[in-house]
Specification:
CATH superfamily of the largest domain: Medium-chain alcohol dehydrogenases, catalytic domain
CATH architecture of the largest domain: Alpha-Beta Complex
CATH topology of the largest domain: Quinone Oxidoreductase, Chain A, domain 1
Distance between the termini: 22 Å
Helix content: 25-40%
Shape: globular
CATH class of the largest domain: Alpha Beta
Strand content: 25-35%
Structural class: alpha/beta
Number of helices: 11
Radius of gyration: 20 Å
């Protein structure tokens, strides 16, 4: 079948909007018609060449849609089901999946870095017949996407697909970083470096966990209103003030119990670690270039017994956590409306990314089924 998609042919070039051929699902696969896809920094890293991947490739890893067709052997989904694609497929059989850490699944990891399906092939081709790679197995920047059954989680059809798209990456990653990776305790103090799509959800999840002081840090002062709306008690404009000095001043020189870095740059990683108090935990969530290194005071790591850890996809279990988060949103415990600043038709996806780079949005979505 033909579908319109945004294709990256080379880093630092605009995405090309064109019709592509999408193969029907094979055994164990489903085809999803995408209704919403998130505009996220993770895709931008690939577009800028910070995360080198083979091209041409259809990006997009956050989204929601409806199952168009299913292949042989598919048992958990049927045509017409509303689904959330997950960009870390869990095979259910490797040691990580079996030990409750599906974000580290070997098959999902292989798909992420090869741009291919588990069988080593692709389901996308352009008008010339050239193969187009998948991104994280889901490629949500296409009107239609064929993916493994393990890449899609069924949700109740009564739920908004735009809300569900927000949950599929930004919300679940921020939530998981707080509840699974850091295990934030009620009454604690928290600092969040980066108030973008992930950071804002770290903030509101820290609020849900009962943190009493939540300090947001960003270089865009425009992020303050979003951060405070979702639970930040303080905001530090890092373009004007030294966040380390400011946070230590706010905490009487002690530092915070939990610090989160949601950008992926060395400096804020170092700053987050430096404001973590003795016995505290620093969690790095931001995606960095492969060769990124940060300078950490190892002496402080030992003598202060700090914990420094990474968190991919919030260390979550998507098949459990996505329905949980949607339920929390339906009950008014989790806020989704403040996260969505703007929607765009797929044809204007390059404009959407320019807006993201300028810091104009909290989160935005492209709507592949809508025309400009």
């Amino acid at each position: 079948m033909k579908a319109t998609a945004a294709v990256l042919y080379a880093p630092n070039e605009p995405l090309v909007i064109e019709d592509v051929e999408v193969q029907s699902p094979g055994p164990g696969e489903v085809q999803v018609r995408m209704h919403a896809a998130g505009v996220c920094h993770s895709d931008l890293h690939v577009m800028k060449g910070d995360q080198p991947l083979g091209t041409p490739i259809i990006l997009g890893h956050e989204g929601a849609g409806i199952v168009e067709a299913v292949g042989k052997g598919v048992s958990s989904l049927k045509e017409g089901d509303s689904v959330v694609p997950i960009w870390r497929m869990s095979c259910g059989q490797c040691e990580y999946c079996l030990s409750g850490r599906p974000a580290l699944c070997d098959v999902g990891t292989q798909m992420r870095f090869t741009g291919l399906m588990p069988d080593g092939t692709t389901r996308f081709h352009n008008a010339k017949g050239d193969e187009i790679k998948h991104y994280a197995g889901v490629s949500t920047f296409s009107q239609l996407s064929t993916m493994p059954e393990g890449c899609a989680v069924k949700i109740d059809s009564s739920n908004s697909l735009t809300d569900a798209a927000l949950v599929s990456c930004g919300v679940i990653t921020g939530y998981g970083a707080v509840f699974h990776s850091a295990k934030v305790k009620a009454g604690s103090t928290v600092a969040v470096f980066g108030a973008g799509g992930i950071g804002l959800n770290v903030i509101q999840s820290a609020r849900l966990a009962g943190a009493t002081e939540i300090i947001a840090v960003d270089t865009f002062s425009s992020k303050q209103v979003h951060a405070e709306r979702l639970g930040a008690t303080r905001f530090i404009d890092a373009s004007k003030d030294d966040p380390v000095a400011a946070i230590l001043d706010l905490t009487s020189g002690v530092g915070v119990d939990y610090a989160f870095e949601a950008i992926g740059h060395p400096e804020p990683i170092e700053q987050a670690y430096d404001v973590t108090r003795k016995g505290g935990t620093c969690v790095v969530v931001g995606i960095s270039a492969p060769d990124t290194k940060a300078k950490i005071n190892v002496n402080a790591l030992v003598y202060a017994e700090k914990t420094l850890k990474g968190s991919i996809y919030g260390s979550t279990r998507p098949r459990i956590d996505i329905p949980l988060l949607i339920d929390l949103a339906n009950r008014g415990k989790l806020e989704l409306e403040p996260l969505l600043t703007k929607t765009w038709p797929l044809e204007k996806i390059n404009e959407a990314y320019e807006s993201l780079e300028r810091g104009e949005v909290a989160r935005s979505l492209v709507l592949p089924q809508e025309s400009a």
